[in-house]
Amino acid sequence: MSEPADDPQSSRPSLALGPSERLRRLYALVAVALGAAVVALLLLTSDAGYARDEGFYFYAAKRYGEWFVLLVRDRGEALRRAAIDAHFVVNHEHPALAKSLFAVSHLADRRLGLFAEPGTAFRFPAMVLAGVMTAITFHWGVRARGAVTGVVAALSLIFMPRVFFHAHLACFDVPITALFVATFYAYDRTLKSSGWLWPALTGLSFGLALSTKHNSWFLPIAFAAHASLLALMAWRSRQSLRTTLRRPLAALLTMATIGPLVLFATWPWLWFDTWARLKEYASFHVNHEYYNMEFLGENYWKPPFPRGYAPLMTVATVPLVTLVAAAFGTAALGRDALRDLRAREPEVAAEHATLVLWALGVAVSYGPWLSSGTPIFGGTKHWMTAYPFLALFAGAGVERAASVIREELELVGAAGVGRVVAPACVVLALASPVFQSLAAHPWGLSAYTPIVGGAPGAASLGLNRTFWGYTTGSLTDTLNRELPPGGRVYPHDTAGASWEMLQRDGRLRKDLRAVGRADDADVALYHHELHMQGQEYQAWVAYGTVQPVVVSGLDGVPVVWAYKRRRP
Description:
The chain is mostly helical. The chain has two domains: 21-394, no CATH class; 470-564, Rossmann fold. 61% of the residues lie in helices and 5% in strands. The protein is built from 24 helices and seven strands. It has helices at residues 21-44, 52-73, 75-78, 81-88, 97-112, 118-145, 147-158, 161-166, 173-191, 197-210, 218-236, 241-266, 274-286, 309-317, 320-343, 346-349, 353-366, 387-411, 415-418, 421-440, 454-461, 476-482, 496-505, 533-543, and strands at 293-295, 298-300, 488-490, 513-514, 523-527, 550-554, 557-564.
């Protein structure tokens, strides 16, 4: 299959003609620059408090880093089972790649002093992968539909408020999203090329995804479904099945071989008792414990969970302009695909293989939420792997809308005005997402879009205001000011390691102590979640007051507040 065109002048760009070599190089440079700009922006806005899971990963990364140091100093000792098990037993319910990257960044920072805060060193690899995710989305959009599609897709993705927030964290959600779309992109390039480079890159990317998070398990399902659809189209048009399936099967072969090898090589925990530990890992996620989540005023902590959770939360958190553009793009491109498929022309029908791939990316990411038994405790991050494809459809929708408007202007003799249509459409598509993301930061998990009334409307609807305890970061000035030397704080939902990182960063005074009960503290924090209201009542009783000393939140919605013990 030949390369797609980048000509924005056509309402339906032909996929039969590729951009010039000069344009390809230019777009590659733009992709790199865009990714670097995203990383720089994330570093400039890295002021969010530390989420609970980050605390666990900080500790795991430190232990992994100690093993890396041992590996350099005494390789024989490091490769012994006792050493590997002692270091990698920590957080072994998750693969090791992301935590290993956090560890390497932390070690480099200790040696070279790269970052102003130690916490940023742990977060930096995820920020880099956010840049990679943005660059790949841009480049794929450009190759498939043109420059407008690439720009809108890339920026619509990173400026989804929830994605923008998660891109700052030393967690796995943005890394797996980056590797998920990278594997899809490599598979797509495999179909359009010859030789073994892109199949090998597909297998490598899949292996890295396997070593990041269990969302990667859906990648072979998506590609097997795609290959089956290609085979069906070939059968209907009486094409050779062998010719049609040769490239998809090459990618699936490398995924089945290179992928597991990469997982094994990057996760030392699997080097001993491999099958038993793989089964334990799979069992942990297939039979994951249930946590609490508020949805429409009701607290869910066990099945059945509402099937409407994922679609409603998508509508409530993804900017409306992105959703509308994606719906328009899907409808327009889908209509083209159905028309061409009815024609049973194999060369034309094959043009839409990329479109089908985008649709499968969305489908396999949302698929688990068709079951009422799928846990909903993680909110939107659990289907974040769908968002690059949603953004690509949005980019294609804006590109199509701009083309239609430009053609209409040409018909009425206003071709000069038509030249500014595409830039104007890009600005209109991106202005609101950029504003919403920057305005909500660092309250990303409290961010809701205007379609539900923003954060105030979402609170009135009974949608979850926050989780993970990261909002302690917004109260550090109050704690530093209000507490005496050696003061004790009940940090509520903030993990111990996350609290310690705030102190290592210098955001919190080092003499302050975190304690496990409000009754033992001078100040008690409360991060609002429906099922945690009892924690606030305990502070009322312990301190003899219902008046917090500080309330902090987004757009007037209380999210986290603190009670202080009354002194005689």
